[in-house]
């Protein structure tokens, strides 16, 4: 893969990872609820889910969706249902108030599971890979070049959210997050439910 093409891929993956959405909300919630380790775990396993979609893309995900649009519709509905469920959980946590210092409200196992599921259930990620990442894949591309695409998407996504988790879990930031945990949970819940409704009501622009 030429360097210029790879740099374009890096820029697109970085913009996709850094855009606000349910992935950021997930890392924030697990960092808030359990500290640095659950937050980093959520970030790493989210990257594995992203890598899975990247792998499907280099194997021809875009062509499959064009041939079977109903498959894409089912996936988006399932993703919307999961995002809505996470939003309801966040709202319930918000009504419970802030998180007491030292209390562990989440575990690394929960963070790992939700990290993968949020990545796989996020319809915006599917659209991102089909519309953008598939443009970098050509029929004559070597296995090594395809592996570079998958690795680039995973490393950038995981690296960004690991940085977010580490930054949010800093000793000067985490107490502030705990103080406003109930509001953060409520805002997160509303955003997740709003995204789920947006997916159900029509295409994401």
Automatic annotation (TrEMBL):
<keyword id="KW-1003">Cell membrane</keyword>
<dbReference type="GO" id="GO:0005886">
    <property type="term" value="C:plasma membrane"/>
</dbReference>
<feature type="transmembrane region" description="Helical">
    <location>
        <begin position="143"/>
        <end position="163"/>
    </location>
</feature>
<protein>
    <submittedName>
        <fullName>Lysine transporter LysE</fullName>
    </submittedName>
</protein>
<keyword id="KW-0472">Membrane</keyword>
<keyword id="KW-0812">Transmembrane</keyword>
<feature type="transmembrane region" description="Helical">
    <location>
        <begin position="41"/>
        <end position="64"/>
    </location>
</feature>
<dbReference type="GO" id="GO:0015171">
    <property type="term" value="F:amino acid transmembrane transporter activity"/>
</dbReference>
<feature type="transmembrane region" description="Helical">
    <location>
        <begin position="71"/>
        <end position="88"/>
    </location>
</feature>
<feature type="transmembrane region" description="Helical">
    <location>
        <begin position="183"/>
        <end position="201"/>
    </location>
</feature>
<dbReference type="Pfam" id="PF01810">
    <property type="entry name" value="LysE"/>
</dbReference>
<feature type="transmembrane region" description="Helical">
    <location>
        <begin position="115"/>
        <end position="136"/>
    </location>
</feature>
<dbReference type="InterPro" id="IPR001123">
    <property type="entry name" value="LeuE-type"/>
</dbReference>
<keyword id="KW-1133">Transmembrane helix</keyword>
């Amino acid at each position: 893969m030429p360097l210029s093409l790879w740099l374009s891929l890096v820029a697109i993956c970085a913009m996709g990872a850094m855009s606000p959405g349910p992935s950021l909300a997930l890392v924030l919630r697990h960092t808030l609820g359990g500290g640095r380790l659950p937050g980093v775990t959520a970030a790493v396993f989210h990257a594995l889910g992203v890598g899975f979609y990247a792998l499907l893309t280099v194997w021809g995900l875009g062509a499959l969706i064009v041939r079977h649009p109903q498959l894409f519709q089912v996936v988006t509905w399932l993703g919307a249902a999961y995002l809505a469920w996470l939003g309801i959980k966040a709202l319930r946590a918000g009504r419970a108030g802030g998180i007491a210092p030292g209390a562990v409200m989440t575990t690394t196992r929960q963070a790992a599971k939700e990290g993968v599921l949020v990545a796989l259930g996020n319809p915006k990620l599917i659209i991102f890979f089909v519309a953008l990442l598939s443009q970098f894949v050509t029929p004559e591309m070597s296995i090594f070049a395809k592996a570079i695409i998958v690795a680039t998407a995973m490393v950038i996504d995981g690296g960004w959210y690991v940085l977010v988790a580490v930054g949010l879990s800093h000793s000067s930031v985490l107490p502030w997050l705990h103080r406003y945990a109930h509001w953060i949970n409520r805002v997160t819940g509303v955003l997740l439910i709003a995204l789920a409704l947006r997916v159900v009501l029509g295409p994401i622009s």
